Fold:
Amino acid sequence: MISMIEQRGIRFVDLITGEERHTVTNWDLVMSRKIIGTPKLKYKSVNLPDRDGDLDYTDALFGVPLYENRTLEFTFEYLEDPRMWNERFIDIRNFLHGRKVKLYDPDDSGAYYYTGRVEVGDPEGGLVKIFDVKVSANPWRLKASGETVETIAATPNKVFRLMNDWKPVVPTITTDALVSIQFGSVVYTMDGSGTFKFPKMLLQHGANVMSVVSGTANVTFTYQEGAI
Structure:
């Protein structure tokens, strides 16, 4: 059984090597502070003299709002044998400082992870060492279960739905034959077996309804779901 203190630790995974560390089990750290910042909206507007208020064009380009990076901040304390501190902190700095990582928030039930670049602050204190870790993270929390893969046996006039979390995402499409699929008012044609990606085929939150216009094929949609 995982202890309460271990649940309150952070699991970091190096994005390049896949190597991981847990702040409790590997470094004997206690997390005393955690701030998961909300990503700032990339708000865009123009003040026109002949109308009330501002003209908001925040989502004019892509049809959805965009966000800046979010900041994650943690404070850790080392309460174990002070003779082991130097060895611990050398490993912490080597593994985290300046690296891009996945990290798992213990209060998120392991369902999502963040990605970002880490900065490790200078330690303070006497026998009890205290230091901060800051992460400049992607605004979206990504589903830890991995990419969603949906395979459709496409036949003419078939209607199907792709379910998506909150993050708008363009799927990668793989087919084994020519097929045309309508999404919204646009018809997308996969001209034979292969892999395709259409920037305007943007899956929104909830059920995304599509229909097969022509062709018979096995069509696989692959996409990474996420939420703020």
Notes: Residues 1-6 have pLDDT under 50 and may be disordered.
